# Entry
Amino acid sequence: MAKPRARDLGLPLPGISGPHNAITDVPGVLVGYRTLNGVAANGRRIQTGVTAILPRGREAEPQPVWAGFHALNGNGEMTGTHWIEHGGYFVGPLCITNSHSVGIVHHAATRWTIDHYAAAWQREHLWAMPVVAETYDGVINDINGQHVSEADALAALDAAAGGPIAEGNVGGGNGMICYGYKGGTGSASRRIEIDGRGYTLGALVQANHGQRAWLKVCGVAVGERLEDELPQGLERERGSIIVILATDAPLLPHQLKRLAQRAGLGIAQGGTPGGNNSGDIFLAFSVANPRALPQVSAIRQSLDYLSDECCDALYLAAVQATDEAVLNAMLAAEDAPMQKPEGICRAIDGERLRALVLTGGA
# Structure
């Protein structure tokens, strides 16, 4: 049975969420997981996985997804970002896994793209450059064993679906730690209106960042009140956070880059300053303006887009959804055994957290 999410606990979170309060509230966006749990031949625990996002679902023809990228602190990896910076788009899936599995997941995502769009790839001289991001799960998972396979990544892509999505110890977030508690995968969304038209913004995070003393929830500094639960060895930050923002609002690449920057303000709501060891890496994309690839399009193009002067509502939605997605990741998580150092990484107690927030930390 799923644990209560942040809103279910009655935490005073601002904004209006979509029907599933998830990135899948954005039309066409699908999310899938492959979650790995077991014991390796060396006796170490396997607790890792892959998260897959299909921005345009399983459309028959390849189409660009307009995007923008921002690194608050670049101690991490997200492939494909050079072209996103220069070309303003990417094509195909977006995956998140652990730090030592980026290569195999990239290989699988490339294979999925070639196979799924087989006719286009056979007909044209096209290249596949998937977006694959990572965070480090070596405290809990036998990360050096590189247990994620091509088949695992393809299974995550094949499992991608809309509607409510699982959170916590799932997919690439399976072995992650957040503010000294068990972290993982989380999501949230916001509904906004601009010029009489409704839009959705969704966030998905792989939360593996922060030190316990930093933790703030709904503006209340709760971390110092919760340090009694901090296992030895988790005083330092050894992780990162990936934030993916999706929207159906029509935005240009430079606007999406600015939107991605606001994910940094979102994670700051939870207290992190963007620590030295944390790869705080963000991507925003828009599913608006679908069209054929530039390589096979007409020379003259036009795009529908919002004025920069209208973007404040989207910026606020990005901050709110990112903050809530991190909370949802932590609240959905389950305890996990650690192996380096040994111990147990506990999930946060939602009821205790609620009491602290509603009493102002008293």
User: Anything to note?
Assistant: Residues 64 and 91 are 5 Å apart (CA to CA). The first helix runs from residue 81 to 87. The first strand starts at residue 30 and ends at 39. The chain has a mean pLDDT of 96.
